[in-house]
Amino acid sequence: MRGQGQISRRLVVLVVVAGLLLAPAAAVDVQAVLAPFPDLAGFARLLASSPVARELAGRSSLTLLAVPNADLPQSPSAFAAAAGADLADVLRYHVLLEYLSPADLRRLPATGKLVTTLFQTTGRASADLGAVNVTAAGPSLGVVRSPAPFPGSNATVLGSVTSVPYNLSVLAVDGLIVPSGFDLAASESRPPAAVNITRVLADARGFNVAASMLEASGVAEEFEGDERGAGITVFVPTDDAFASLPAGDRLQSLPADRKAVVLRFHVLHSYYPLGSLESIVNPLQPTLATEYASQAGRFTLNITRSNGSVAIDTGVVQATITRTVFDQNPVAVFAVSKVLLPKEMFTRADSAAVVAAALAPPPAASNSMPPEPPESARTPPTKLSSPPALRGGARNDTAVSPPSSSTAKATAIGRWCIELLYVLPVLLPLV
Fold this sequence. Notes:
Elements: H1 2-22, H2 30-34, H3 41-48, H4 52-56, E1 62-66, H5 76-82, H6 87-92, E2 95-96, H7 102-106, E3 113-116, E4 131-137, E5 140-145, E6 154-164, E7 168-173, H8 184-187, H9 197-204, H10 208-217, H11 220-227, E8 232-237, H12 239-243, H13 256-264, E9 267-268, H14 274-278, E10 284-286, H15 288-292, E11 300-306, E12 309-313, E13 318-328, E14 331-336, H16 352-359, H17 405-427
Parallel strand pairs: 1-7, 8-14
Antiparallel strand pairs: 1-2, 3-4, 4-5, 5-6, 6-7, 8-9, 10-11, 11-12, 12-13, 13-14
Main location: membrane
Domain FAS1: 27-177, 194-340
InterPro entries: FAS1_dom_sf, FAS1_domain, Plant_FLA
C-alpha cells in the first residue's frame, strides 16, 4: 500500500510539472514593463505610437533591445527614412523572438548565435536578413549586428534592464539597428526630400476626404515652404470624422477661400512629435490660419494632455489624437477624431437642426392661405342671419371659398344661442 501511495504522488508531481512545461506562456505588457524606467521613455513612446506595441501584446518569450534616451537619434523617423526603412520595421528589428538572459549571452559560442526578429515575420526580409547575429565581445555582454556579409549598422549590449523570467528580457543597446538591405551610409549626406502630405495620407488610408480637400484647395502646396523652416505638424481628420459632421454642417457649403482657412487651422507652424505634444508648455498654439488672420491671437488651438491622450479644443469641438500617421523631422502628421472647426467661423449653437431649418426650402403653395380676392370682387353679406355657408352664391357671380371649420363652428354656436333665447320664455314658467 505504501508503495502504491508513493507511485500515486509521483504521478501527480509528473502531471503538474508536465502541465507547467506544456502550458502556453502568458503574454507580457511591454509598456508596463518599461514604464518604471525613465531612461527608456523615448523608446517606449516610439513603441506606443507604432503598430509594434499591439503586435507584442499577444507574444511571449521575447528579448527587447531597448535604446536609452541618450543614445536615440534626434529624430528616429528621419534616421530610419534616411536608410530607406520604415520606423516600425526598425523597431521590429529590435524584438528578438527568443528569451535571452545575461547568462545566455555569456554562454554564446565564438561564432555567435543567429536569432530571428519580429521583422522577419513581415515577409519583407529576404532570406535570413530579418535575423540578427548576437556575439560575445570582450567586457560587454555582446554585440548585435546583421548577418549580411557586407557592413551594416550594429549595436553593443550595454547591460540588462529588467526581465520577466522566460517571457521577456529587456537589454539596453547603444543605438538603433537598421535591418540589412537598407543603405544607411550612402544616404546620410543626402538632403531629405520634401514630404508630400497628400501622398502620405493616401498611403495611410482612411483619409480620402482630407487628401482631396487639400489637393483641391492648393493648401498642400504651401507646406513645402513651411517644412524648410521650423517644420510643420498636421492634424488630419479621418474619413469617419468627416462622416460624423451634422447633415446640415456649413463646412461643405463654404467658398473655396474659407475652406482653405479651415484646412490651415489644422496645421501648426512647428514640428512637434507626439512626445512634445504630450508635454507641451504653452497649450494655446497658433496655426497657419493665424498667420493669415487680420488680428493676432485668432485661429488658435488649445492642446492639452487628457486621460492619457492628447486633446485639442477649438472652442467649438474637442478632438483627440488617435494615432501617428507620419513622424519624420521636420514633418509630423497625426490622425484626429473630429474635424477642427474654428470658433471664428463656427459656434456651438450651430446645431444640425438650426442649420437644416435655415437651409430648408419654403413651404409648398398648397399649404399656404388662399389669396385674398380684390376689393371689387368682395361681396358683403346681405343678412346677419344668413352666414356665407348658407348662401347659394355671390353677386356678380363671384365664387366664395367655403368657410373654414372654425368659422362653421362659431356660426352653429351663434344660431344655437338665438334659438335658446326664443325657447327660454316658454320653458321658464314650467320650472
